[in-house]
Specification:
By secondary structure, the protein is α+β, with helices and mostly antiparallel strands. Helix 9 runs antiparallel to helix 23 (664-705) and helix 23 (664-705) packs antiparallel against helix 25 (720-735).
Length: 905
């Protein structure tokens, strides 16, 4: 059987010949034979077993640190810590398992669009057959209310309209015909001789021959792309993965060095193994993964308040790294509310103010305010648009809306702005038909009946013999009308002409033969206006170093005009059409995507190719979509953004984020939140690592110096249980509250981060190194100072450990307040602006005091502490404050050099 790609181009006789069938369909025997050859007409799902999916979640760099910490705490016998850390590991794995299950739901949503049964011709008779049993060559009969079971080439239609919104994004039902289309590379939305599986018949009747089933249908191709497309790893996950490997490598390297040196210094191997395990527990930031997940969750909640629902937690941060935002036009960049902005009548051109369906606005002529009711030609033009109309203006909780066609709604609103709202009884109507290009209504009048007509300027002007000037009629100036219509169209306005004709009172029905001798009234030009907030959001994108890209199915002129109004392109910039894009190979498109910001007459599948080539250029791509055909692009993008109002379930399941208001400005707001999330994650990392570094260094130093400082051979500056407490309390009480840090100024005033830049940059290494050394020196010095002044009895050694333990906590406490800003001084911002942090600090200090004084308060000391003399609180606090001042000095140096990419916040 011959394979033919573009069935819409093929004459139906050639289709029958290629498929070895006829208008009477296949015989039962032929169908059974082909079913064995082609397989069932159904979409296949590739599912991994639940156990395999669950185990795959452990292959996550974020979990390496936690698993290592759990093993080490178990070796040390601290089983409570082991249980807690294991709980965090399992919680992370379960979350990933659930999210992957949701990804598979997108394919299930696709399958739900397939109808179980249909009517086909078998052996020349109509039969109800299972859709999965259809094969190429079968003839299917479709009627209003049916869902199309496979891809069909139509050969018989009668007033046949199909809703293809889920597949193509086209909001209106599309009229189909049987004629072959001569142009190649047409997107599905323009293949009018085809009916695609999954679409819905809204009107009429048709017969078509099956040309594709299962995975070869347009819907099947989407399912295949969804299966083949692997969701990209978010930049933050890559960074944290690299960072985790760096930390693990450093920790294990230190451990090996300490183990070898300890043995060489004469320590027993068993003792050194336990000491090394203690040092590794001190060095490993086991609280970091929980802090990062919390940051994602808190950021997701903040985005939800700004109309962006995050479906996959890392996506909350990915937006902050976005370099390109590809957006649909209608409803996202524009209001999706057609608005009349110009009226030509009586030889005058009027401009209307107001946007959307709110019936408030004024009329201007030559920049002068004009009353439309004082101009008979203008008022009649508006009346014609109001009465020759089937739409209705309604007011709801969210303001005004239109019930019916948006174009007709725009005419009602323009009339309402002039105060024309009175209904006149309608006697008859000729509905709009594409082949006629006009609509006519007949209304009861005082001195006779009146017929109003609206339609394309070319068609209506041909039906007119004269025109109304406002006071009288005069011969039709067809050239002037045509020139005005062209000027409006060149500005991307949709133009409709209005005309009328007086009739006798006894005329109560209309006939196409009445469409002559009309009087021309005027033109109304309308457009779907850009959202004002989208214009501001585009400016923010430019300032933030993000390239906005508009991808639309509209004509090139409309796309260019709207893009210019939004500020996406300038006058001479290139606009690429879907046909041009289809003719390009991937290398040609790779060269084009960097230069082109507007794509017109595109099909949703073009989004996938644009996404892949932008990513190939190193961009972090956010892509919007609402249709089924958008799903592969949404999944392939670094951040897929589905529309919450107009989006299909398939698109929402494939996306990382869902906009509840379908507004481009909400994406930009989410970008700001994403950058804020990254800032706070980096602050948490930069804060927590010195805690581990300080503990590790003080223990390493004690072991290495024990041959020279004998007290270190008797007692280390901190007990292992105290190390674990510091790790826990600093992460929970100090580190996690940093996630609630208010947004820094100017987040959208600088370019996106380099996605390839490491978390451990020079500033990170300097800051962590300085604070780690300060923490270790402060704790070690306090331990030695206390022993030197008080003695080395068992009691004084426990007090010395308590003083060192508390000093380490207080160094981190004071560092916490300066760590709120990476670059700015602690003395330049309100220390109480983060109430969660203040509360966490207060609770942690309270807990530390209870631990210090647990022996006299409770008669037990689980952390092996003993209260030290009250006078020693002065050096503890003084040493801790000294650490803050040294960090402030380092910040001054950083501000003066100003070379670091993270130095703006």
């Amino acid at each position: 059987m011959e394979e033919t790609k573009n069935w819409y181009q093929t004459p139906i006789e050639r289709v029958f010949e290629a498929l070895e069938t006829s208008s009477g369909g296949l015989s039962t025997r032929q169908a059974e034979k082909r079913l064995q050859e082609y397989g069932y007409n159904e979409l296949k799902e590739e599912k991994r077993g639940s156990l395999i999916r669950f185990l795959a979640q452990f292959n996550n760099p974020l979990l390496y640190v936690l698993i290592a910490a759990a093993v080490l705490t178990a070796v040390l016998g601290h089983y409570i810590d082991t249980y807690v850390i294991t709980g965090v590991v399992l919680a992370t794995v379960v979350i990933g398992f659930i999210q992957e299950g949701k990804a598979e739901a997108s394919l299930a949503a696709l399958k739900s669009m397939m109808v179980p049964q249909c009517v086909a011709l078998r052996d020349g008779e109509k039969r109800t057959v299972q859709t999965r049993d259809l094969v190429p060559g079968d003839v299917v009969v479709l009627e209003s209310g049916d869902r199309v079971p496979a891809d069909l080439r139509l050969f018989s239609v009668r007033h046949f309209y199909v809703d293809e919104a889920a597949l193509t994004g086209e909001s209106k039902p599309v009229e189909k015909h049987t004629d072959p289309l001569p142009r190649p590379n047409l997107p599905p939305s323009e293949q009018r001789s085809m009916a695609f599986g999954g679409s819905f018949v809204t009107r009429g009747r048709a017969e078509g021959v099956v040309v594709a089933t299962g995975e070869k249908t347009e819907m099947g191709k989407i399912a295949g792309m969804m299966t083949e497309t692997k969701r990209g790893e978010p930049p933050i996950v890559r960074k944290i993965g690299d960072f985790t490997k760096f930390i693990l490598g450093a920790c294990l390297g230190f451990g090996v060095i300490i183990l070898v040196l300890g043995v060489l210094l004469g320590y027993e191997l068993g003792y050194m193994l336990l000491a090394t395990a203690g040092i590794l527990v001190a060095l490993i930031p086991e609280g970091l993964p929980a802090a990062i997940i919390t940051a994602f969750a808190v950021g997701s909640m903040a985005m939800a308040r700004r109309n962006a629902l995050i479906r996959r937690l890392p996506a909350a941060e990915t937006l902050g790294a976005t370099t390109v935002i590809c957006s649909d036009k209608t409803g996202t960049l524009t209001r999706n509310e057609m608005t009349v902005v110009r009226v030509f009548s009586g030889g005058r051109l009027y401009h209307l103010t107001g946007v959307g369906y709110d019936p408030k606005g004024d009329f201007f002529h030559n920049d002068q305010l004009h009353s439309p009711m004082e101009d008979e030609a203008l008022s009649r033009t508006l009346t014609a648009g109001f009465l020759c109309n089937n739409a209705e203006l309604v007011r709801g909780d969210r303001g005004y809306g239109v019930r019916g066609d948006p174009t007709e709604g725009a005419l009602i609103v323009s009339a309402a702005k002039a105060g024309i709202t009175a209904e006149v009884p309608q006697l008859d109507e000729i509905p709009f038909e594409p082949e006629h290009q006009y609509m006519a209504t007949l209304h009861r009048g005082e001195d006779g009946n009146v017929m109003y007509v609206k339609g394309s300027p070319e068609r209506v002007s041909k039906m007119c013999s004269d025109q109304f000037t406002g006071t009288h009629t005069e011969p039709l100036a067809a050239d002037s009308i045509s020139r005005q219509a062209r000027e409006m169209a060149s500005d991307a306005l949709r133009v409709l002409a209005m005309a009328y004709k007086r009739c006798d009172k006894d005329k109560v029905a209309l006939d196409p033969s009445d469409m002559q001798g009309l009087t021309f009234l005027g033109l109304q030009g309308m457009i779907d206006p850009p959202r004002q907030e989208a214009i501001e959001a585009i400016k923010k994108c430019r300032k933030a170093g993000i390239k906005p890209v508009m991808i639309t199915g509209d004509h090139m002129a409309t796309a260019r005009a709207v893009a210019q109004q939004l500020g996406i392109i300038e006058d001479e910039e290139e606009v690429l059409t879907g046909e041009q894009l289809s003719a390009m190979n991937d290398n040609d498109l790779y060269e084009a995507v960097e230069k082109v910001s507007v794509y017109a007459r595109t099909a949703p599948e073009h989004k996938y190719r644009i996404t892949k080539q932008l990513q190939r250029r190193g961009h972090i791509v956010a892509m919007t979509g609402d249709g089924v055909n958008d799903a592969p692009a949404l999944k392939a993008a670094d951040i897929g953004v589905a529309m919450g109002i107009t989006g299909t379930e398939v698109s929402k399941e494939a996306a990382d984020m869902v906009l509840t208001d379908d507004n481009f400005a909400s994406i930009v707001a989410a970008v700001e939140e994403g950058r804020h999330i990254f800032n706070n994650i980096w602050k948490v990392i930069l804060y927590l690592l010195p805690t581990n570094g300080g503990q590790g260094l003080v223990l390493i130093a004690a072991i290495l110096l024990s041959p020279f400082i004998l007290v270190f051979g008797e007692r280390l500056p901190m007990e292992p249980v105290q190390v674990l407490w510091v790790n826990l309390v600093v992460a929970i009480g100090f580190g996690i509250p940093l996630i609630w840090e208010p947004k820094d100024r100017g987040l959208l005033d600088r370019p996106p981060r380099n996605p390839e830049e490491k978390l451990y940059n020079p500033l990170f290494l300097r800051r962590v190194g300085i604070v780690s050394l300060l923490s270790a020196a402060a704790a070690g010095a306090m331990f030695l100072l206390f022993v030197n002044r008080v003695g080395d009895t068992e009691e004084s050694l426990s007090q010395a450990q308590t003083a060192a333990f508390t000093t380490l906590i207080f160094v981190q406490l004071f560092y916490l307040f300066t760590a709120r800003k990476i670059y700015r001084s602690v003395f330049t911002f309100n220390p109480f602006s983060n109430r969660v942090l203040v509360l966490g600090a207060a609770v942690t200090v309270g807990l530390q005091l209870m631990i210090v004084y647990s022996e006299p308060l409770f008669g037990v000391s689980p952390f092996r502490t003993l209260p030290f003399p009250a006078l020693w609180w002065l050096p503890v606090i003084a040493v801790s404050l000294g650490g803050l001042l040294i960090v402030e000095i380092e910040k001054i140096i950083e501000r003066r050099t100003g070379k670091d990419s993270y130095a703006e916040f």
